Amino acid sequence: MGDTKGEANDIVIRTEGVSKFFPGVQALKDLDFSVKRGEVHALCGENGAGKSTLMKTIVREYIEDEGNIFIEDQNVGEFGIRDVQKLGLSLIHQELNLIPMLSVAQNICLGREPTTKFGTIDWTAMRLMAAKFLNEITSEIDVNIKVENLSISQQQLVAIARSLVALPKFLILDEPTARLDQRASDSFFAFLETAKQKGLTVIYISHRLEEIYRICDRVTVLRDGRKIITAEINSLPQADLVKHMLGREITQQVPKEQVTIGNVKLSVRDLYPKEKGERISFDLRSGEILGIVGSIGAGKSEVARAIFGADPKNSGTIKIDEKEVRVATPQDSVRMGLALIPEERRDQGLVGAESVRRNMTLVALRKKFCIGPSWIDQNKEAEAVKTSIKDLGIATPTMEQEVQFLSGGTQQKVVVGKWLISDSEIFIFDEPTKGIDVGGKYDIYKIIVDLARKGASILFISNELMEVLSLCDRILVMFHGQIIKELQSVATNREELLFYVMGGRDYEQTVNNNKGNH
Amino acid sequence: MSKQSITTREIINNYGATFAFIFAIIVFSFTSRGFFSVQNLQNILVQSTSLGICAFGLTFVLMTGEIDMSYAGVIGLVGTVMAHMLKDGHTIGVVSFVCLGIGMGTGIFNALLIVVLKLPSFLVTVAVMFLSMGVERVISQGVTTWIRQPEILAIVQTKVGPVPVTVIYLFALFGICWIFQTQTKAGQYIQALGENISAVREVGIHAVLLKSMVFVIAGGFFAAAGFVETLRIGGGIMYAGKPLMVFVLAACFLGTATFKAGKVNFPGTLIGAFFLYTLLSGFTGLGLKFYFVPAAQGLILIISVAISSFRRGKIEQVQF
């Protein structure tokens, strides 16, 4: 409604004052967003900025709590998923919803199979139809192959081809290139160019600067569920885009202390995790907090899980205290004093229906609390758990409380407590503050800092640049499965860090170029 | 598929159970007394029919990733109701209609509990199995009611030449199921449903309705199996579905090792059904006493499930 008459026909997707609440968090705040016909519109923002939520609201997978959404001037407030699909809207999700046992052709035509006059599937027509849509993107995939035999990269292309079958007018792509290899990326961008010429409107969520500047016309930046800016891509230098994504400094106190850093504790050389990663090498010293950052799909968790032995690895050596060790299973790691605080704590770190007490002594039970082979020394166990609850400030009514009813932050502390009780010395934190409120985050930072002061070695994996910068001594940036940059926290800033996370090269030169242009 | 090379390993994986079946026939022909006679082969075929029909119903359900145990009760219930209605002089048309109603009604009940209320299918259908056994017991009072009209028994007990007519029913139903699975949209969607339900939802297919339909169709098959089984026996004997319970499951799981690696499929189920009765008949000829049959059934089920699980484990390592 704020648009002038002349532009009104150009705007095809428009949100007005859209807000969306999830338990404990407001994902979208009074958001106005509009997309013009025939443009490729980039949507940028840090993790949790609300990009995916906004897109899912537009395609009606989520229903907004406030505000209106218009598609071609039609209010879609009452519409369902199927209804907006009929308007020509197609969203390609981050997760690929393909059916592995069916062929490429069957997947592409799912729900729209051509039939013969007897009502059975017309296989020849289906293959032709699938090939037609697939050829718009790539000619290197045989439509008769089962999807389970394709690489992840090829599967992503198939998922894109499938969305074309509905002949969409508006295509929403949620980080499509996270899974694509170089070759597939090239054919995908060639496809986008052609699609753009044909008048397709594209909303493109991406974490990669190069891509955004290569194919997009305009860009909208979201931060904390608000729109920060919409601009022509040519009028917005890369460094400014990054600045908008980050915003003002968050006044978040991280209780960082000066700690003397000791000898090399953990040494990783030429590690090749089974998936997504190659030639990972780094040293971690005692008392050191080493950060690993990178966008979704960069391979951070894969590295953590490979070191810990939770996933198999292809090759690479791991040394602890300068002795080469074989870590093939989590049991090995536990013996070596390695601790993993996993990203999915509910699934991988805790036994939800068990008590705080049982969870905390799960790892060390055998080693420390058993009299004979299996008799649990209840008093000793209770004593250790009580101490930990006090030390870590775990907010639980009693130690017999089932952990599934505790808050996210408290659960995370229970996981940490589990490893403390088992005398671990090397801690791998994988996104420890994900989905935890501000107060809870602070407590976790404090625990980590305390651990480091006591001489533990800490690998801190996170997507939140701010916390990495203020907590870590050193930072490794991962992109596409490789460590592309090592930075000292004191000698860098968020702009530089985000620049590298988004796959940028040579920050100094880029910044200097910008200055020259102005 | 032309580009994929077919290795010996794949052949064994995909057709291993079929080879085992042929091998068993050959071995029994030489060792088992009276195995390779026309009458015995006819017997195997006739006995496989109700098992096969019932297993087709279960195959539909297994495709969606659920399970339905209610057949073991429905078959007996249908038999008892049939026998009583025929005794009371109702026409076979009305009786068949009622039987189908019982099966599909049970299917609707199952669908409500499993698909709508999202209760676990195994427990729900085991409960429904006992429920139908209970109802059956109330109706029959534990007494077998025989069917005395030869023209009705002939529906199942005649032969076309040397071929028992039930075999024709079985193959006709198999043909319908197979075409449905491989050649129709709904067949595709049912398979897709078990693999990745969000993929099915994403393209706008009504997943809840589809899954419910599968339970109702399966109920219909169970009723049909009960109908054939009752006429084969010649009356409504108590808990007629019970002896079939393990074999139906085993047929489906054996089928996953036949033709299509690790997935339930109709040709596999059909072969599985024949295979099971071949084994049983062969071992009986070798002198297996009837009281060992339950133990043999249990063993066969474990082997079938093991084959199926190992195969599947290998397949599902493909990560998404």
Explain what this protein looks like in three dimensions.
The complex is a heterodimer of chains A (518) and B (320). Chain A has 518 residues and is α/β, with parallel strands linked by helices. Chain A has 20 helices and 22 strands. In chain A, strands 6-7-8-3-9-10 form a 6-stranded mixed sheet, with helices on both faces. A 6-stranded mixed sheet of chain A has the order 16-19-20-13-21-22, sandwiched between helices. In chain A, strands 2-1-4-5 form a 4-stranded antiparallel sheet, covered by helices on one side. The radius of gyration of chain A is 25 Å and the shape is globular. In chain A, 47% of the residues are buried. With 320 residues, chain B is an all-alpha fold. Chain B contains 13 helices and 4 strands. In chain B, strand 2 and strand 3 form a beta hairpin. Chain B is globular, with a radius of gyration of 20 Å. The two termini of chain B are 21 Å apart. The C terminus of chain B is likely disordered. The chains are: A alpha/beta (518), B mainly alpha (320). At the A-B interface, helix 3 and helix 6 of A face helix 8 and helix 9 of B.
